[in-house]
Amino acid sequence: MDEKKKPYGPASRAIHAGEPRIKYEDSITTPIFQTSTFTFHNSRDIEDYTKKKKERFEYGRYGNPTELIAQRRLADLEGAEDSVVFSSGMMAITTTILSLVRSGDHIVITDDSYKKTLEFCKSYLKRFGIECTIVPFGDYDILENAIKKNTRFIFSESPTNPYLNVFDLVLLKKIADRHGIMTLIDSTIATPINQRPLEFGIDLVTHSATKYLSGHNDILAGVVLGRKELIAPIRDLHKSMGGLIDAHCCYLLLRGLKTFPLRMERMNSSALEVARYLEGHPAVERVYYPFLESHQHHHIAKEQMTGGGCIITFDLKGDLADANRFLDSLEMIYIAPSFGGAESLITHPASVSYYDYSCEERYELGITDTLFRLAVGLEDTVDIIADLEHALAVVTN
Ligand SMILES: *Cc1c(COP(=O)(O)O)cnc(C)c1O
To answer: Annotated catalytic residue: which of 73, 152, 196, 211?
Structure first.
Protein backbone atom coordinates (compact mmCIF):
# COMPACT_ATOMS: atom_id res chain seq x y z
CA MET A 1 0.00 0.00 0.00
CA ASP A 2 1.14 3.56 -0.77
CA GLU A 3 2.70 4.96 2.43
CA LYS A 4 0.92 8.30 2.07
CA LYS A 5 -2.51 6.79 1.69
CA LYS A 6 -4.81 6.60 4.68
CA PRO A 7 -4.37 3.18 6.30
CA TYR A 8 -7.12 0.68 5.58
CA GLY A 9 -9.80 0.14 8.19
CA PRO A 10 -10.05 -3.08 10.21
CA ALA A 11 -12.57 -4.74 7.88
CA SER A 12 -10.24 -4.28 4.88
CA ARG A 13 -7.18 -5.34 6.85
CA ALA A 14 -8.92 -8.47 8.10
CA ILE A 15 -9.28 -9.46 4.44
CA HIS A 16 -6.02 -8.21 2.93
CA ALA A 17 -3.37 -7.61 5.58
CA GLY A 18 -0.21 -9.68 5.63
CA GLU A 19 -0.51 -11.32 2.22
CA PRO A 20 0.94 -10.46 -1.18
CA ARG A 21 -1.52 -9.16 -3.77
CA ILE A 22 -0.34 -11.70 -6.32
CA LYS A 23 -0.21 -15.20 -4.88
CA TYR A 24 0.88 -18.67 -5.98
CA GLU A 25 -0.54 -19.44 -9.46
CA ASP A 26 -2.68 -16.25 -9.21
CA SER A 27 -4.90 -17.81 -6.57
CA ILE A 28 -7.04 -15.16 -4.86
CA THR A 29 -6.98 -17.05 -1.55
CA THR A 30 -3.85 -17.88 0.41
CA PRO A 31 -2.99 -21.48 -0.54
CA ILE A 32 -2.79 -24.24 2.04
CA PHE A 33 0.83 -25.34 1.95
CA GLN A 34 0.19 -28.91 3.05
CA THR A 35 3.81 -29.90 3.41
CA SER A 36 6.07 -30.98 6.24
CA THR A 37 9.32 -29.93 4.56
CA PHE A 38 10.69 -27.65 1.84
CA THR A 39 13.13 -28.60 -0.92
CA PHE A 40 16.44 -26.93 -1.70
CA HIS A 41 17.14 -26.45 -5.38
CA ASN A 42 20.87 -27.27 -5.08
CA SER A 43 23.97 -26.69 -2.93
CA ARG A 44 24.05 -23.01 -3.81
CA ASP A 45 20.48 -22.65 -2.55
CA ILE A 46 21.50 -24.22 0.77
CA GLU A 47 24.40 -21.82 1.09
CA ASP A 48 22.26 -18.78 0.32
CA TYR A 49 19.90 -19.88 3.05
CA THR A 50 22.49 -20.69 5.72
CA LYS A 51 24.39 -17.47 5.03
CA LYS A 52 21.09 -15.60 5.35
CA LYS A 53 21.29 -14.21 1.81
CA LYS A 54 17.86 -15.61 1.13
CA GLU A 55 14.82 -15.98 3.37
CA ARG A 56 12.94 -19.20 2.77
CA PHE A 57 11.24 -22.10 4.53
CA GLU A 58 13.17 -25.16 5.61
CA TYR A 59 11.19 -27.59 7.75
CA GLY A 60 7.54 -27.54 8.84
CA ARG A 61 8.14 -27.02 12.55
CA TYR A 62 10.15 -23.88 11.79
CA GLY A 63 7.43 -22.25 9.72
CA ASN A 64 4.99 -22.60 6.85
CA PRO A 65 3.82 -19.96 4.31
CA THR A 66 0.13 -20.27 5.29
CA GLU A 67 1.08 -19.90 8.96
CA LEU A 68 3.22 -16.84 8.16
CA ILE A 69 0.30 -15.04 6.52
CA ALA A 70 -1.92 -15.80 9.55
CA GLN A 71 0.77 -14.40 11.87
CA ARG A 72 1.13 -11.24 9.82
CA ARG A 73 -2.59 -10.66 9.57
CA LEU A 74 -3.17 -11.10 13.30
CA ALA A 75 -0.23 -8.79 14.10
CA ASP A 76 -1.70 -6.17 11.79
CA LEU A 77 -5.13 -6.36 13.46
CA GLU A 78 -3.69 -6.12 16.97
CA GLY A 79 -1.27 -3.32 16.01
CA ALA A 80 1.70 -5.53 16.93
CA GLU A 81 5.11 -5.77 15.30
CA ASP A 82 5.11 -9.55 15.32
CA SER A 83 3.18 -12.63 16.42
CA VAL A 84 3.44 -16.39 16.77
CA VAL A 85 0.44 -18.61 16.06
CA PHE A 86 0.01 -21.85 18.04
CA SER A 87 -2.08 -25.02 18.01
CA SER A 88 -4.27 -23.67 20.85
CA GLY A 89 -4.71 -20.72 23.17
CA MET A 90 -3.16 -22.69 26.03
CA MET A 91 -0.12 -23.49 23.89
CA ALA A 92 0.28 -19.75 23.27
CA ILE A 93 0.02 -18.96 26.98
CA THR A 94 2.28 -21.74 28.27
CA THR A 95 4.98 -21.27 25.64
CA THR A 96 4.99 -17.51 26.24
CA ILE A 97 5.27 -17.92 30.01
CA LEU A 98 7.97 -20.59 29.74
CA SER A 99 10.04 -18.40 27.44
CA LEU A 100 9.99 -15.58 30.01
CA VAL A 101 10.75 -17.31 33.31
CA ARG A 102 13.67 -19.06 34.84
CA SER A 103 14.16 -20.86 38.13
CA GLY A 104 14.04 -18.42 41.04
CA ASP A 105 11.65 -16.03 39.33
CA HIS A 106 8.33 -14.89 40.72
CA ILE A 107 5.18 -14.04 38.80
CA VAL A 108 1.90 -12.36 39.70
CA ILE A 109 -1.40 -13.50 38.22
CA THR A 110 -4.97 -12.37 38.94
CA ASP A 111 -7.37 -14.92 40.42
CA ASP A 112 -10.02 -14.35 37.77
CA SER A 113 -7.89 -15.97 35.07
CA TYR A 114 -8.62 -19.00 32.91
CA LYS A 115 -8.64 -22.13 35.08
CA LYS A 116 -5.96 -23.95 33.10
CA THR A 117 -3.70 -20.89 33.08
CA LEU A 118 -3.97 -20.64 36.88
CA GLU A 119 -3.31 -24.37 37.22
CA PHE A 120 -0.22 -24.12 35.02
CA CYS A 121 1.20 -21.22 37.04
CA LYS A 122 0.25 -22.65 40.44
CA SER A 123 1.23 -26.28 39.98
CA TYR A 124 3.57 -26.79 37.05
CA LEU A 125 5.78 -23.71 37.32
CA LYS A 126 6.31 -24.49 41.01
CA ARG A 127 8.09 -27.70 40.03
CA PHE A 128 10.73 -25.63 38.29
CA GLY A 129 11.25 -23.25 41.19
CA ILE A 130 9.07 -20.47 39.86
CA GLU A 131 6.91 -18.91 42.51
CA CYS A 132 3.48 -17.54 41.70
CA THR A 133 1.31 -15.14 43.70
CA ILE A 134 -2.37 -15.16 42.85
CA VAL A 135 -3.96 -11.78 43.64
CA PRO A 136 -7.65 -10.86 43.78
CA PHE A 137 -8.75 -9.25 40.53
CA GLY A 138 -9.42 -5.52 40.81
CA ASP A 139 -7.45 -4.82 44.00
CA TYR A 140 -4.55 -2.75 42.68
CA ASP A 141 -2.96 -2.24 46.12
CA ILE A 142 -2.70 -5.97 46.78
CA LEU A 143 -1.37 -6.38 43.26
CA GLU A 144 1.37 -3.81 43.78
CA ASN A 145 2.25 -5.20 47.21
CA ALA A 146 2.66 -8.67 45.70
CA ILE A 147 5.52 -7.47 43.50
CA LYS A 148 8.96 -8.60 44.69
CA LYS A 149 12.52 -8.03 43.55
CA ASN A 150 12.43 -11.19 41.43
CA THR A 151 8.96 -10.61 39.91
CA ARG A 152 9.20 -11.17 36.18
CA PHE A 153 5.71 -10.16 35.03
CA ILE A 154 2.07 -9.55 35.89
CA PHE A 155 -0.44 -11.67 33.99
CA SER A 156 -4.15 -11.01 33.78
CA GLU A 157 -7.13 -11.51 31.61
CA SER A 158 -9.41 -8.68 30.64
CA PRO A 159 -12.32 -8.96 30.49
CA THR A 160 -12.54 -12.07 32.64
CA ASN A 161 -14.71 -15.12 32.66
CA PRO A 162 -17.51 -15.45 33.73
CA TYR A 163 -18.14 -12.04 35.35
CA LEU A 164 -16.52 -9.96 32.61
CA ASN A 165 -14.50 -7.94 35.06
CA VAL A 166 -12.38 -5.36 33.28
CA PHE A 167 -8.78 -4.63 34.24
CA ASP A 168 -7.76 -0.97 34.28
CA LEU A 169 -4.87 -1.21 31.81
CA VAL A 170 -3.67 2.37 32.48
CA LEU A 171 -3.31 1.56 36.16
CA LEU A 172 -1.68 -1.80 35.42
CA LYS A 173 0.91 -0.15 33.19
CA LYS A 174 1.68 2.50 35.87
CA ILE A 175 2.21 -0.14 38.55
CA ALA A 176 4.39 -2.27 36.25
CA ASP A 177 6.50 0.74 35.25
CA ARG A 178 7.09 1.73 38.87
CA HIS A 179 8.72 -1.67 39.40
CA GLY A 180 10.19 -2.18 35.94
CA ILE A 181 8.33 -5.42 35.24
CA MET A 182 6.54 -6.80 32.20
CA THR A 183 2.81 -7.05 31.63
CA LEU A 184 0.88 -9.79 29.83
CA ILE A 185 -2.81 -9.67 28.97
CA ASP A 186 -4.97 -12.54 27.79
CA SER A 187 -7.29 -10.46 25.62
CA THR A 188 -9.34 -13.36 24.20
CA ILE A 189 -12.65 -12.07 25.51
CA ALA A 190 -12.06 -8.56 24.11
CA THR A 191 -10.46 -9.28 20.69
CA PRO A 192 -8.45 -6.62 18.83
CA ILE A 193 -11.70 -5.04 17.66
CA ASN A 194 -12.93 -4.22 21.17
CA GLN A 195 -9.62 -3.60 22.98
CA ARG A 196 -5.95 -3.25 22.03
CA PRO A 197 -3.80 -3.61 25.17
CA LEU A 198 -0.56 -2.86 23.28
CA GLU A 199 -1.78 0.72 22.81
CA PHE A 200 -1.83 0.99 26.62
CA GLY A 201 1.81 -0.08 26.75
CA ILE A 202 1.12 -3.71 27.69
CA ASP A 203 4.09 -5.85 26.59
CA LEU A 204 2.48 -9.05 25.33
CA VAL A 205 -1.06 -9.99 24.36
CA THR A 206 -2.39 -13.53 23.96
CA HIS A 207 -5.60 -14.79 22.41
CA SER A 208 -7.31 -18.10 22.12
CA ALA A 209 -8.02 -17.81 18.38
CA THR A 210 -10.36 -20.77 18.90
CA LYS A 211 -12.95 -18.19 19.91
CA TYR A 212 -13.79 -14.98 18.03
CA LEU A 213 -10.80 -14.77 15.71
CA SER A 214 -11.55 -17.99 13.81
CA GLY A 215 -15.21 -17.59 14.74
CA HIS A 216 -16.85 -20.78 13.49
CA ASN A 217 -16.42 -23.25 16.37
CA ASP A 218 -14.36 -25.44 14.04
CA ILE A 219 -10.67 -25.09 15.00
CA LEU A 220 -8.37 -24.63 17.99
CA ALA A 221 -5.67 -21.98 17.69
CA GLY A 222 -3.78 -19.41 19.76
CA VAL A 223 -1.55 -16.41 19.26
CA VAL A 224 0.87 -14.17 21.14
CA LEU A 225 1.57 -10.65 19.92
CA GLY A 226 3.99 -7.86 20.76
CA ARG A 227 7.28 -6.18 19.90
CA LYS A 228 9.74 -8.05 17.67
CA GLU A 229 12.40 -8.47 20.35
CA LEU A 230 9.89 -9.96 22.80
CA ILE A 231 8.36 -12.31 20.23
CA ALA A 232 11.73 -13.66 18.97
CA PRO A 233 12.54 -15.81 22.05
CA ILE A 234 8.96 -17.11 22.13
CA ARG A 235 9.26 -18.16 18.48
CA ASP A 236 12.56 -19.90 19.29
CA LEU A 237 11.04 -21.89 22.15
CA HIS A 238 8.01 -22.67 19.97
CA LYS A 239 10.37 -24.37 17.51
CA SER A 240 11.49 -26.71 20.31
CA MET A 241 8.10 -27.20 21.96
CA GLY A 242 6.49 -27.96 18.63
CA GLY A 243 2.96 -26.71 19.46
CA LEU A 244 2.46 -26.15 15.76
CA ILE A 245 -0.74 -25.21 14.07
CA ASP A 246 -1.05 -26.97 10.73
CA ALA A 247 -1.53 -25.20 7.40
CA HIS A 248 -5.13 -26.26 6.99
CA CYS A 249 -6.03 -24.80 10.38
CA CYS A 250 -4.24 -21.59 9.42
CA TYR A 251 -6.32 -21.44 6.29
CA LEU A 252 -9.52 -21.78 8.34
CA LEU A 253 -8.25 -19.08 10.68
CA LEU A 254 -7.55 -16.76 7.74
CA ARG A 255 -10.94 -17.57 6.27
CA GLY A 256 -12.62 -16.82 9.59
CA LEU A 257 -10.69 -13.58 9.97
CA LYS A 258 -12.16 -12.19 6.75
CA THR A 259 -15.51 -11.73 8.49
CA PHE A 260 -14.13 -11.11 11.98
CA PRO A 261 -14.75 -7.32 12.19
CA LEU A 262 -18.21 -7.81 10.68
CA ARG A 263 -19.01 -10.59 13.15
CA MET A 264 -17.80 -8.48 16.08
CA GLU A 265 -19.98 -5.57 15.08
CA ARG A 266 -22.98 -7.86 14.98
CA MET A 267 -22.11 -9.67 18.22
CA ASN A 268 -21.50 -6.40 20.09
CA SER A 269 -24.91 -5.04 19.15
CA SER A 270 -26.81 -8.32 19.40
CA ALA A 271 -25.37 -9.19 22.83
CA LEU A 272 -26.14 -5.73 24.21
CA GLU A 273 -29.74 -6.15 23.09
CA VAL A 274 -29.96 -9.63 24.64
CA ALA A 275 -28.31 -8.36 27.86
CA ARG A 276 -30.89 -5.57 28.13
CA TYR A 277 -33.66 -8.06 27.50
CA LEU A 278 -32.36 -10.38 30.23
CA GLU A 279 -31.95 -7.50 32.67
CA GLY A 280 -35.63 -6.67 32.25
CA HIS A 281 -36.87 -10.24 32.68
CA PRO A 282 -38.65 -11.09 35.98
CA ALA A 283 -37.04 -14.58 36.18
CA VAL A 284 -33.53 -13.13 35.98
CA GLU A 285 -31.85 -12.16 39.23
CA ARG A 286 -28.80 -10.38 37.81
CA VAL A 287 -26.99 -9.78 34.52
CA TYR A 288 -23.26 -9.19 34.05
CA TYR A 289 -22.32 -7.44 30.82
CA PRO A 290 -19.62 -4.74 30.68
CA PHE A 291 -21.60 -2.45 28.42
CA LEU A 292 -24.62 -2.42 30.75
CA GLU A 293 -24.65 0.54 33.14
CA SER A 294 -25.18 -1.91 36.00
CA HIS A 295 -21.79 -3.62 35.53
CA GLN A 296 -19.24 -2.81 38.25
CA HIS A 297 -16.56 -1.99 35.66
CA HIS A 298 -18.81 -0.24 33.16
CA HIS A 299 -16.80 2.99 33.31
CA ILE A 300 -13.45 1.24 32.65
CA ALA A 301 -15.04 -0.86 29.89
CA LYS A 302 -16.32 2.31 28.20
CA GLU A 303 -12.88 3.93 28.44
CA GLN A 304 -10.77 1.13 27.09
CA MET A 305 -13.16 -0.99 25.00
CA THR A 306 -15.28 -0.24 21.95
CA GLY A 307 -17.78 -3.06 22.42
CA GLY A 308 -19.01 -5.44 25.10
CA GLY A 309 -18.47 -8.67 23.13
CA CYS A 310 -20.75 -11.71 22.89
CA ILE A 311 -20.60 -13.09 26.45
CA ILE A 312 -23.41 -12.38 28.89
CA THR A 313 -23.39 -13.94 32.33
CA PHE A 314 -26.63 -14.07 34.27
CA ASP A 315 -28.11 -15.49 37.41
CA LEU A 316 -31.62 -16.89 37.40
CA LYS A 317 -34.05 -16.67 40.29
CA GLY A 318 -34.86 -20.05 41.81
CA ASP A 319 -32.74 -23.12 42.45
CA LEU A 320 -30.76 -25.82 40.67
CA ALA A 321 -33.97 -27.53 39.47
CA ASP A 322 -35.08 -24.26 37.84
CA ALA A 323 -31.66 -23.89 36.25
CA ASN A 324 -31.87 -27.40 34.79
CA ARG A 325 -35.43 -26.85 33.54
CA PHE A 326 -34.33 -23.66 31.82
CA LEU A 327 -31.38 -25.41 30.18
CA ASP A 328 -33.51 -28.35 29.03
CA SER A 329 -36.07 -26.01 27.45
CA LEU A 330 -33.67 -24.30 25.04
CA GLU A 331 -34.26 -25.26 21.43
CA MET A 332 -31.78 -23.27 19.33
CA ILE A 333 -29.01 -22.19 21.70
CA TYR A 334 -26.58 -25.09 22.12
CA ILE A 335 -25.38 -26.27 25.51
CA ALA A 336 -21.60 -26.15 25.04
CA PRO A 337 -18.47 -24.41 26.30
CA SER A 338 -16.61 -21.80 24.20
CA PHE A 339 -17.80 -18.54 22.64
CA GLY A 340 -17.24 -16.24 19.69
CA GLY A 341 -18.52 -18.64 17.03
CA ALA A 342 -21.52 -18.48 14.73
CA GLU A 343 -23.69 -20.66 17.01
CA SER A 344 -25.10 -19.26 20.25
CA LEU A 345 -23.82 -21.35 23.16
CA ILE A 346 -24.72 -21.55 26.82
CA THR A 347 -22.84 -23.06 29.74
CA HIS A 348 -23.83 -23.76 33.30
CA PRO A 349 -20.53 -23.26 35.17
CA ALA A 350 -21.73 -25.01 38.36
CA SER A 351 -22.25 -28.32 36.55
CA VAL A 352 -19.50 -28.08 33.93
CA SER A 353 -16.40 -25.97 34.71
CA TYR A 354 -16.78 -26.35 38.50
CA TYR A 355 -18.29 -29.85 38.67
CA ASP A 356 -15.33 -31.06 40.78
CA TYR A 357 -15.63 -28.26 43.36
CA SER A 358 -17.59 -28.52 46.59
CA CYS A 359 -20.65 -26.25 46.88
CA GLU A 360 -18.83 -24.09 49.44
CA GLU A 361 -15.76 -23.65 47.22
CA ARG A 362 -17.97 -22.86 44.28
CA TYR A 363 -20.10 -20.32 46.15
CA GLU A 364 -16.95 -18.64 47.43
CA LEU A 365 -15.90 -18.08 43.82
CA GLY A 366 -19.35 -16.67 43.14
CA ILE A 367 -20.47 -19.61 41.01
CA THR A 368 -24.06 -20.14 42.10
CA ASP A 369 -26.37 -23.02 41.12
CA THR A 370 -28.32 -20.74 38.80
CA LEU A 371 -25.47 -18.96 37.01
CA PHE A 372 -25.27 -19.16 33.21
CA ARG A 373 -22.84 -17.91 30.63
CA LEU A 374 -24.43 -17.18 27.32
CA ALA A 375 -22.31 -16.65 24.20
CA VAL A 376 -24.47 -14.81 21.72
CA GLY A 377 -23.90 -16.12 18.20
CA LEU A 378 -24.73 -14.78 14.78
CA GLU A 379 -28.33 -15.96 14.56
CA ASP A 380 -31.10 -13.35 14.33
CA THR A 381 -31.28 -11.52 17.64
CA VAL A 382 -35.07 -11.97 17.74
CA ASP A 383 -34.64 -15.75 17.50
CA ILE A 384 -32.06 -15.80 20.31
CA ILE A 385 -34.39 -13.76 22.50
CA ALA A 386 -37.38 -15.94 21.55
CA ASP A 387 -35.46 -19.08 22.57
CA LEU A 388 -34.56 -17.50 25.94
CA GLU A 389 -38.11 -16.21 26.42
CA HIS A 390 -39.56 -19.66 25.89
CA ALA A 391 -37.06 -21.32 28.27
CA LEU A 392 -37.38 -18.59 30.93
CA ALA A 393 -41.15 -19.05 30.95
CA VAL A 394 -40.53 -22.52 32.38
CA VAL A 395 -38.71 -20.93 35.34
CA THR A 396 -41.36 -18.30 35.99
CA ASN A 397 -44.21 -20.82 36.00
C1 LIG B 1 -10.51 -20.52 25.64
C2 LIG B 1 -9.60 -19.67 26.41
C3 LIG B 1 -8.27 -20.02 26.61
C4 LIG B 1 -7.70 -21.33 26.12
O5 LIG B 1 -7.67 -21.39 24.73
P6 LIG B 1 -7.71 -22.78 23.92
O7 LIG B 1 -7.71 -22.33 22.50
O8 LIG B 1 -8.93 -23.50 24.33
O9 LIG B 1 -6.48 -23.52 24.30
C10 LIG B 1 -7.46 -19.14 27.31
N11 LIG B 1 -7.93 -17.98 27.80
C12 LIG B 1 -9.21 -17.61 27.62
C13 LIG B 1 -9.67 -16.32 28.17
C14 LIG B 1 -10.09 -18.43 26.92
O15 LIG B 1 -11.35 -18.07 26.77
So the answer is: 211
- Ligand 1 mutation target, pool 210, 219, 252, 313, most atoms within 8 A of CB: 210
Q: How far apart are CA 8 and CA 73, in angstroms?
A: 13
Burial zone of 395 (CB within 10 Å; 0-12 exposed, 13-18 middle, 19+ buried): buried
Instruction: Please indicate whether residue 72 is annotated as part of the active site.
Output: no
In a domain, 280, yes or no: yes
Question: Any catalytic annotation for residue 276?
Answer: no
Q: Is residue 291 part of a domain?
A: yes
Name the pTM for this structure: 0.96
Nearest of 319, 312, 325, 315 to residue 384 by alpha carbon: 312
Residue after which a domain boundary falls, among 217, 240, 257: 257
* Domain, as residue range, for 389: 260-396
- The pLDDT tens digits of the residues spanning 198-234 come to 999 999 999 999 999 999 999 999 999 999 999 999 9
Q: Whose CA is nearest to atom 1 of ligand 1?
A: 208
Q: Nearest 5 degrees, angle CA 102-CA 107-CA 108?
A: 170
- 349 CA from centroid of ligand 1 (Å): 15
Residue 186 a catalytic site member: yes
Mean predicted confidence (pLDDT) in 124-145: 96
Q: Cα(first)–Cα(last) distance of the chain, in Å?
A: 61
pLDDT > 70 in the chain, percent: 99
Active site residue 61: yes
Does 167 reside within a domain?
yes
The one catalytic residue among 112, 114, 196, 288 = 114
Ligand 1 closest atom vs CA 157: 13
Same domain, 241 and 364: no
Same domain, 115 and 239: yes
pLDDT digits 0-9 by tens, 349-365 = 988 887 888 888 888 88
